[in-house]
Write a structure and sequence with these properties.
Layout: E1 12-15, E2 18-19, E3 30-33, E4 36-40, E5 46-49, H1 62-75
């Protein structure tokens, strides 16, 4: 999942991998991807070249985005 601002036009993108089998944790928001509950692994955020990403699968809801933002703040100690 891309977690980088749309305003940053860089050759790489900040992404957080997702997993359907990872154990739920307080810092791993759960989102729906193609109607399947999926964990966003914010603790594994990294930069990836745009060309390494596959096709767009979907977009998160406003509530899911808020949960991801909160998890990133926690993982990166931004508060």
């Amino acid at each position: 999942m891309i977690v980088q601002s749309d305003d940053l036009l860089l050759s790489t993108l900040l992404v957080a991998p997702t997993s359907r089998s990872a154990a739920p944790r307080s810092f791993r928001p759960t989102i729906l991807v193609e109607d399947v509950e999926t964990q966003v692994l914010v603790e594994q955020t990294s930069a990836v070249a745009r060309e390494r990403l596959g096709d767009l699968v979907g977009r998160v809801s406003h509530d899911e985005l808020r949960q991801i933002d909160d998890a990133l703040r926690l993982a990166l100690e931004l508060d």
